[in-house]
Amino acid sequence: MSITATDPALATGAWPRLQQPVVELDHAGRRLLVLLNLFRMGFSGLLLGLSWISVEGHLELPIQPPFPTLLGAQIALGGLWMLTLLWRRPRLEIQAWLQLGLDLPWICALIWATGGLGSGLGLVLLLSCVGAGLVMPPRQALAYAALASLHVLGFALFAQLDGEAVVWPHAGLLGAAAFGATWGVNVLTRQALDSKLFASRASRDLIDLARLNEVIIAQLHSGVLVVSPRGRVRLANAQAQDIVGPAPRGTDLAVLSPELARLWTRWRILPLEATSTLRDLDGEREFAPHFTPLGQEGAITLITLEDLGQAKARMQEMKLSALGRLTAGIAHEIRNPLSAISHAAALLAESPALDAQDQTLLEMVRHHAGRINGIITDILQLSRQRASIPEILFLADWLDTFIAHYSEGLDPDEAQIDLQLPPTDLKVRMDPGHLSQVLTNLLDNARRHGRPAQGPVRIAIECERFVSNGRIHVHVSDNGPGIPPEAAARLFEPFFTTSRIGTGLGLYLSRELCEFNGAGLTHVPHADSGCQFRIALPHADFRKD
Prior knowledge:
Layout: H1 8-11, H2 25-56, H3 67-87, H4 92-113, H5 123-135, H6 138-161, H7 168-219, E1 223-227, E2 233-236, H8 238-244, H9 253-256, H10 258-269, E3 278-279, E4 286-294, E5 300-307, H11 308-349, H12 356-383, E6 391-394, H13 395-406, E7 415-419, E8 427-430, H14 432-449, E9 457-466, E10 471-477, H15 485-488, H16 506-516, E11 520-524, E12 532-538
Helix pairs in contact: 2-3, 2-5, 3-4, 4-5, 4-6, 5-6, 5-7, 6-7, 11-12, 14-16
């Protein structure tokens, strides 16, 4: 599961603007009006059916002659409102006032047609007030409640003037109930909307935070995996997939990397136990896995793969910086007396009075003075290394030309070079001067230290291409005695050497030159006799997804 920074704001480094969530109040209000219309039409149809039953069954119900007309008109009007809601014209606020406003005179006429407030149909007025509280803003809802109360009191006053008996407390309570229902429902609606706004804002914040975390994880230099308790991969950034391979969500860790799964299982049993190291798919880089439990009781595990090569490179950089400051201070102080010693030795060598023993001692002085000068030159080269200028090289042609020049004057009885040319279209990106210096050093080391007990040194140069990571491996091996394991672990340390005549900087400089060009140099343990080094060169046409 590859994680990429696709969000424009995050990809450019800008903090994502948290937009206010848009609550679809218009849609919710229209849906409430649809429900109110369905209730009106259903209620009117029910009363209309009861009126017919009362006629056919000779029931004595207090129903006036306009009653069926009022019910039929409400059903027809409800159908009209359904069409306006479907067309979304006019806007919601106007539709709410039209529908709920016309409810008031219709309910009053219905109460009058059924015998007055005592019929109990006044409670239908509360349903309209509840609808107003749900759909309208607070002030408009209270205005509607006041209008409903005026309709009730006006109807009561009209009935009293017409000579009917009116229970004024009943009318007053109905008006107060209209106010209470409208206000209470409106308050609850506002609180529900506020809760919805808060939940939407919190959800948006969590989404933005998740996107931000994904970008941060994707940009980390270390590999990051999140593993479930059952050992299934839930998340893996691009760096982790470069190390252990493609890891879609749900991949079994044991199938993806058995060694990492073994270390994870051991850590779950003994969390305080120090973990071992892990190598990538090519075996070039070494990583230290770190396990961190997340969630309640470690429900999931965060695995961080730290590149030990980068940590070692930082340590080497600090050593190199200190070494550069040191050499800048002492090179002049050492070379001046060394030049005087070398000059004095040269003058002394011209003296005819020296016997054979003195000549031997003089030769020792000249030899070690030259060795000291070589060490100083190599040390100064560490801090004066020129910048890399990579070029696209056709590897087959370049290797053929390089070996032809290197083999000039080479005694076949001393060393033989077997070059297995790669395909002619294989291209790498590397500074040709740096690559020449690295290969020269490896071939010189093979000639100097890789001599077998009998016969010449046989040096083989082979090439291998890896399509998955865009690397071209150049293997340089010999048929010599090989390198002991205790010495192989320190091969690339500055000043480490197993020879009395070497400075111990050749392999260190070669690896530095490779890293300057985005390449790598490693020693490959050999099962048979001999020694093998691998140069991992970047392919010129490889583009990482």
